[in-house]
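[agent] plan:
  1. take the single chain provided in the ticket
  2. run structure prediction with default settings
  3. attach structure tokens to the ticket
  4. add a short note for the reviewer (M.T.)
[agent] executing step 1
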Amino acid sequence: MKRQNDQKLHGIKEKFNYLRYLWELNHPKTTLASPPPLVTIEPTTLCNLKCTYCATGTMTREKRHMEIEMFESIIKKLEGQTRVIYLGDAGEPLTNPKICDFINIASEAGLYVVLFTNATRLNPKRVISILESGLNVIEFSVDSIHKETYESIRLNGRAPKVWKNVLRFLQLKKEMNSPIITRMRVVKSESNQHLIDREIKILDTLPFDEIRISNYLNNKGWEDALEYHDGRNSPNALWCIMPWKEPGFGVDGTVRCPVDFNHAYNYANIEDGSLMDAWNSPNLVKLRAAFLSGDLEQLKQVNDICWRCNCRTKYGYNNATDGLVQAILKYGIDFPDYYFGYLNFSRSPEEEASLESKYANFDESVRKFEAYAGYKVTPLKKEPRQAIPVTA
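[agent] step 2 finished; step 3 output follows
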């Protein structure tokens, strides 16, 4: 099994960049000196599901995979600048047949790698390939245990198959003694909100490191928004941290906000310069200036989708930060956790003990899961242990 990269900052340069990043988050300007510690990379725009709340189904961009040469080019420009990459955006990463190559390339470059998946493509051999890669975190996105509810949200998905895939991953992870962090994300919507409390209690008995309930993003319904999503009680309603926090890289190297699925407002293309060139591109500097102005009309003129996006209210972003000293005291300088509090990157001894306890009761928890679900998901006792080639 491949050695994993740790989540700590190494050397004076990384720690200095992080401290400067904290400073710039607390004292936002239009042009930044620190690179983003986390970026999103889109391995593909193809998805095998048509989730009711997702923009992928209405996206006008070309549906294709990122070429491995493009991925390698991006990673080279991130080395020594960024610490974490998040693989997943408009499409399902596991539809890209070279996704394990992507993970290996990023891991070899010393990056901390997070993979997002809807779990539909997690066959046993692919699970083993993932567990043997340098992946640090895998995040499953599954919105309900209840078959009818799940399948009414995740169109083309089959709840029994998906949950069997997830539980089999947990089982093989234990058998192979993998340190990968496992996270379950449930997107809350009108369709499943009446089930969430009960289902979270069931999921909490299973050996996930983290279970996260996420409000859906309105990136499919921007055209329907009639007013700015201002959060009402925010100290500054006209605010979003994304232009200072995290860029997203599309399959063609386009740099833009990670929630801008249709590339309505592009910052730059990574092929045209360095990471910092893209991070301080004229378009991004102009967008930051519009937010800092506090003028809604100026923001509308610069980027018409920002004022209709609920990203800032979904995550509670505002410009009232803890302050630099308080941030360092709260988050330390071991890893860029500031504004990434929703990402759990490591386990405490207490969390390790809790995980072991849940694995000890795994079979009983699965039986209770099945009793509630009304279908069988028991993982196979004998699984193939040969990994598929990373390019297959």
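[agent] step 4 note for reviewer: The two ends are 19 Å apart (CA to CA).
[agent] ticket updated
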